[in-house]
Predict the 3D structure of the following.
Amino acid sequence: LKHLREHEPARSGRVELVGKKGLAALQFARIPIAQHHRQFGDKPRYPDVESLAQSYIDAFSAGDVTAVRVIY
């Protein structure tokens, strides 16, 4: 939340959420969530998240996004 509050590009960028724990905090801070990925369990394995990671890599490589930050 601190990063999103202090960096305008992060606030105006696309925020995606994986899991349940951050949902209430982001909603309370009124940070819009572009996509909420609920399909992963508490202990996801690499094959479970590989396609999501690849979509971020592809978007970055194509220049559609300038940065991808994973916050946990």
Notes: The beta strands are 16-18, 35-37. The radius of gyration is 13 Å. The chain has a mean pLDDT of 88.
